[in-house]
Amino acid sequence: MKRRTRRSLVAIAVIALIVMAGWFFLTERPIAVQVVTIDRDVPVRIYGLGTVEARIVSRIGFEVGAALTGLEVDNGDAVARGQILARLHAAEQEARVARAAASAEAADATLGRTRANVVRARAVLAQREATNTRQQALAVRNTISAQRAEEAQRDVDVAAAELAVAESDIAVALAQRADAEAALRYEQALLDHHVLRAPFDAIVVDRHVEAGTVVRAGEPIFSLMDPTTVWTLAYVDEARAGAIALGQSAEVRLRSLPHEVFSGTVARIGIESDRVNEERRVWIACDRCPPQVYLGEQAEVRITVALLTEAFLVPEIAVSGFDGHQGRVWVVRDEKLTEVSAVFGHRTEDARLEIVSGLAEGDQVVSAPAKGLSEGRMARVLGGRAS
Question: Which residues form a coiled coil (predicted)?
Fold first, then answer.
């Protein structure tokens, strides 16, 4: 019985030793890890999703209302500045222009008549002044009566007053002519408003009405786009948008042309973010634009915000407690594992973070999380792995 008990105790002790040896082997043996190495000339790009737009897109129409009698262009047509796009029924306005032109001619005739009256009034005044001079000389010699001399002077005064009236009539006639000419120009301007012209070199994006439609003043007839102002509107996550600056280079891929890359630069950064989606609007002006532009087409944008000549880049999955600025990583220090706090800078497209501080000299950063990572455990580096 004692021998059996002794054997049991020995068996238990052996099993315990085996368990302890297994636990030690599993938990204390050096763990194999991969570490990151220095990367060189790594571009830092920020991704954004957006649409193709144009800075100048105008919805144009007539300044007056009437029936459309003709449309000269259609969707997709290229038009030049000043080219006629559409016409309105203008018979009534043409009649108003003719009436205004007749009024202007009448004003010219009135002005001519008043000027002739001035010439006549001056001639009468000169004649009466000459008569008055003779009459006054005769009155001095008592050849004529004083009454006749007074009448001669009165005739001069009346002629001078009539000349003043005639000269004032010229001012009135000039004002009437100016008013008639202004009215004519106004009616001609209204007549010109019955013709719709292109305000700039453009592409017709859309035609909103058809011929025969009675349109109101200001109602859009065409949508025009200036093809020289094409750009891409991209929406970028606010958490990534802080490094974006004007003039940075960018690449644009269109959904319809996924195998082509169009280059551009950051032309505008919106000063107001989307409060719901927490995104910032960024406009990319194309250096090389697609031959055919489709407004509203989906586009993928990658903006190059930096070029890292040398950097330690660790996958974000290997960082714990990352708050956008700091986090903790495992490093191999003196062949042992330890967890350290690090400060991060740029983030690459493939979710790698640039370590800017927090490492000691000789530290090797573990590139991926693994089971068994614990403080002070021995580690065996399998070899550098480009982060």
Answer: none
Domain count, the chain: 4
Q: Report yes or no on 371 lying in a domain.
A: yes
Report pLDDT for 239.
85
Query: Is 50 exceeded by the pLDDT of residue 386?
Result: no
Backbone dihedral region of 376: left (phi > 0), alpha (psi from -120 to 50 degrees) or beta?
Answer: left
355 or 117: which leads in pLDDT: 355
Q: pLDDT tens digit string along 206-228?
A: 999 999 899 999 999 999 999 99
- With a pLDDT cut of 90, the percent of the chain lying above it is 46
94 and 180, same structural domain? yes
Euclidean distance between CA atoms 252 and 288, whole angstroms:
10
Q: List, in order, residues 6 or more apart from 246 with CB less than 8 Å away.
A: 266, 267, 268, 269
Residues 141 and 256 grouped into a single domain: no
| CATH number of the domain encompassing residue 201 | 2.40.50.100
Pairing of strands 352-357, 298-315: antiparallel
Q: Tokens standing for 308?
A: 């890292």
Residue 387, in any domain of the structure = no
pLDDT in tens, 110-133: 888 888 888 888 888 788 777 767
- Percent of the chain past pLDDT 70, that is, above it, reads 88
Q: In the chain, what is the greatest distance between 2 CA atoms, to the nearest angstrom?
A: 190
Residue 242: phi and psi, rounded to 5, are: -65, -25
DSSP reduced 3-state for 319: coil
Closest residue by Cα to residue 387 from 359, 368, 361, 363 = 368
Name residues whose C-beta falls within 8 Å of residue 189's C-beta, 6 or more positions apart in sequence.
none
The residue segments making up the domain with residue 331 are: 29-42+309-382
Work out the burial of residue 226: count CB atoms within 10 Å of its CB; fewer than 13 is exposed, 13-18 middle, 19 or more buried: middle
DSSP track, 265-315: EEEEE-SS-BTTTTEEEEEEEESS--SS--TT-EEEEEEEEEEEEEEEEEE
Domain annotation covers residue 159: yes
Is residue 28 very low, low, confident or very high in pLDDT (cuts 50, 70, 90)? low
CA distance 212 to 88: 9
> How far apart are the C-alpha atoms of 106 and 205, rounded to whole Å?
48
Same domain as 304, residue 215: no
Is residue 7 predicted with pLDDT exceeding 90?
no
Structure tokens at 41: 């000339």
